[in-house]
């Protein structure tokens, strides 16, 4: 059995490899693929250098692979062609299972950020490859505690609940799918404890002893703020739209799927904040 983890030099990829090792998967059966492979040289697994833009390198990296984890690209606007390269390389290699990290409710949400994920899911289904879709919810790391302490939280999500969990929980869930059988064709909606941004600010305040506020803006004002702190207009529009959709429930999902894969409760928000502090 050979398990390939793409994007292995990023945070989620490294954590997934660490979780596979913790589950007893031999290092000799794990291949980490990414751009800066020196970042994972210490893990003891096979490393292969390949970028999503390089089909030939991907085909070489997937040689002999039984399962491939496609961790979604981090560059909005480029994801679909990048992911298409991975899917084609996996087909050429005769991979037995392709696992993809998608976005919450990708097939039904109107959140702009999810459009490329929905298209990737379609390509995967049309490829004929056996697949599993992991619709990862929001990482709690998306709201850095140090930044919240310095500046407070700002957004346009109103009272919308966000099902958050540490990145490590999502990595452990991915490792569970890769290391066990019985998941082919399944789509998992993954999310942890659901909180509003105001509740998150209150918990940071409680634990830190410093007052942290959440300022709720309308979507256009929030977009202007994001542009004002240096985000390109297109990126600001996407992130402001995330909060618009969040206010309508786009980032709320039950914990059931995540906790099923983890075999334990998802990490509570309070625990994650304590760790960050």
From TrEMBL:
Annotated NAD(P)-binding domain ranges read: 7-180
Pfam families reported in the protein's UniProt record:
NAD_binding_10 (PF13460)
The species is Paractinoplanes deccanensis
What is the name of the protein in this document? NAD(P)-dependent oxidoreductase
User: What InterPro entries would the database entry show?
Assistant: NAD(P)-bd_dom (IPR016040), NAD(P)-bd_dom_sf (IPR036291), NmrA-type_oxidoreductase (IPR052718)
Database matches in PANTHER family:
NMRA-LIKE DOMAIN-CONTAINING PROTEIN (PTHR47129:SF1), QUINONE OXIDOREDUCTASE 2 (PTHR47129)
